[in-house]
Amino acid sequence: MPAITPKKLLKFLLKKGFYKHHQVGSHLVLKSLNDPAIRVTLPIHNNDLKPGTLNSILKQAGIDKKEVFK
Asked: Residue 62: which domain range?
């Protein structure tokens, strides 16, 4: 799986209909405009996201990996 930075993933999620709900420290909580029950926690760090963290974020968001890396 290719590496992706949190900033790039944030930009992608905002385009997919998420909005910034709140931030606690370096963790940003996003909610879906379509379904308020969908909540995603995104760590905002300078390093690339680890594969397991990325998988977890995409699973929370209900987004397929293939969609991100088009």
From this structure: 6-68
CATH number of the CATH domain containing 13: 3.30.920.30
Contacts of 49 (CB under 8 A, 6+ apart): 3, 4, 5, 6, 9, 43, 57
pLDDT in tens, 53-68: 999 999 999 999 999 9
1 domain-assigned: no
Neighbouring C-beta atoms of residue 13, cutoff 10 Å = 22
Q: Tell me the whole-structure pTM to 2 decimals.
A: 0.91
